[in-house]
Design goal:
8% of the residues lie in helices and 51% in strands. The chain has 3 helices and 15 strands.
C-alpha cells in the first residue's frame, strides 16, 4: 500500500499554483500509471482473454480479431480513454502468435504501445476429443509515454520545474503467461512487465521518482457448467491482481450466463471488482477516512456466426469519486479460419461461438 501525505498550506508557500497543480497531476499519474502497459479492466469477459493473458494466443479453434474502445466520465474534459486492437492465431498444431496495438490517454498523460506474442500449446490428452491443454506465452512490447507540459507555465513568473514542452520516453518490456484448459475448467497466470524499467519523463530535477519495478501478477480461475439439458450455461470466475512494488491488490468476482443458438450465442453477466487496500483521505482536514476502490460492471454481448459484439458499463461505487458518470466500453470481434474439429466440452474460450 502507498500512502501520500500532502500539506496544502505548506505547498502554497513554496511554489506557485501551476507548479502545485503539476505536482498533484504527476502524483495522480503515479497511481493511474503505476502499472505500465495496457490497463486491465474487464475486457477479458468479452471473449478477449488474449488481451490479458499472452498464453491464450492461438489457443482457440479459430483465429480472432478484437477491437475495443473505452471512455470514462463523459462529463469530464480529457477523461481517460483507451483503444486496443489485437489479433491472435494458431500456426500448426502447437504454435500460436498474436499482436496488440493500443493507445491510452488520461489528460496530459498518454501511452501508445505495440506487443508481439509467441505461444506454445501442449496437448496432454491423446487426441483433440478431450480438452487437456497447457499453454505458454511470451509477449514483447514497445511502449511510449508522453507528458504534455505545454501551456502550464506563466511567462511572467516562470517556474524551473515546468519545462514547457511535451516530454516523451520509449521503453521495452515483456509479459509471460501460463494457461491450463481442462474440459470446462480453466486457469491463467500472467506476469506483466518482467523487466525493470523507469520512464525518464518522470525523472526531471524534481523530488518525484518512479520505481523501476512495474511487475504485476494476474491470476484467474473459472468453470462453465450447463443448466439441465437446455441451451443455458453459467460461468463463475475470479481474477486477482497484485502490483509487486506497492503490494496493492484487487479481486474480481464474475458471473457470466450463456444462451446457445443455432448460429451463435448470447451472453451477459456481472462483475464486481474490489481493492483489498484502503485509500486514506480527509474531507474536512481533520478526520481521516478510508475507502476501498469498488467497481460494479454489467456486460452483454453476442457471437453471431463469425462476428462478436460486446458492451460493458462500469460504475464506481465509492463515496468519494471524481464524477458520477460511468465507464463505457464497446468490443467488436471477428473470427476466421475456424477448424472443423471441436473439443468435446462446453468451453467457449477455445471452442468458438458455435
Amino acid at each position: 500500500m502507498v500512502y501520500v501525505y500532502v500539506n496544502i498550506g505548506e505547498l502554497k508557500t513554496r511554489m506557485n499554483l501551476k507548479t502545485y497543480l503539476l505536482v498533484f497531476s504527476v502524483l495522480l499519474t503515479q497511481f493511474l500509471y503505476a502499472q505500465e502497459g495496457i490497463p486491465v479492466y474487464t475486457d477479458y469477459l468479452s471473449d478477449n482473454l488474449y488481451l490479458v493473458h499472452p498464453s491464450m494466443a492461438g489457443a482457440a479453434n479459430a483465429n480472432k480479431v478484437r477491437l475495443t474502445g473505452r471512455k470514462q466520465w463523459f462529463d469530464v474534459d480529457n477523461a481517460p480513454n483507451l483503444q486496443t486492437l489485437n489479433v491472435n492465431f494458431r500456426a500448426g498444431e502447437k504454435l500460436g502468435f498474436g499482436g496488440i496495438v493500443y493507445k491510452d490517454e488520461n489528460g496530459r498523460f498518454s501511452q501508445t504501445g505495440a506487443y508481439l506474442t509467441f505461444a506454445y500449446h501442449l496437448l496432454l490428452s491423446k487426441d483433440r476429443t478431450d480438452l487437456n491443454l497447457v499453454s505458454f506465452g511470451l509477449s514483447t512490447g514497445f511502449i511510449q509515454s508522453n507528458l504534455d507540459l505545454v501551456g502550464l507555465d506563466d511567462p511572467s513568473d516562470p517556474d524551473p520545474v515546468i519545462v514547457g514542452r511535451e516530454q516523451k520516453a520509449g521503453y521495452f518490456n515483456m509479459d509471460f503467461g501460463v494457461s491450463y484448459n481442462f474440459l470446462e475448467w480453466y486457469a491463467h497466470f500472467t506476469v506483466k512487465n518482467i523487466l525493470p524499467t523507469t520512464r525518464d519523463i518522470f525523472n526531471n530535477d524534481t523530488p518525484i521518482r518512479e520505481s523501476n519495478n512495474q511487475r504485476r501478477y494476474i491470476f484467474s480461475l473459472g468453470y462453465l457448467f450447463g443448466i439441465g439439458k437446455g441451451a443455458w450455461s453459467l460461468e463463475p470466475s475470479v481474477l486477482y491482481q497484485l502490483t509487486d512494488q506497492t503490494k496493492e491488490n484487487t479481486i474480481d468476482a464474475n458471473l457470466k450466463a450463456y444462451r446457445g443458438y443455432k448460429y451463435g450465442r448470447m451472453w451477459a453477466g456481472l462483475s464486481y471488482r474490489r481493492s483489498l487496500d484502503g485509500a486514506e483521505f480527509t474531507q474536512d482536514g481533520s478526520a481521516v477516512e478510508s475507502q476501498n476502490l469498488q467497481y460494479v460492471t454489467p456486460f452483454i454481448g453476442a457471437n453471431y456466426k463469425n462476428f462478436m459484439f460486446g458492451y460493458t458499463y462500469s460504475h464506481q461505487s465509492n463515496s468519494v469519486v471524481l464524477s458520477n458518470g460511468g465507464f463505457h466500453q464497446l468490443t467488436l470481434g471477428y473470427d476466421f479460419g475456424k477448424r472443423k474439429e471441436r473439443w468435446n466440452c462446453n468451453c467457449p474460450a477455445v471452442n468458438g461461438s458455435h
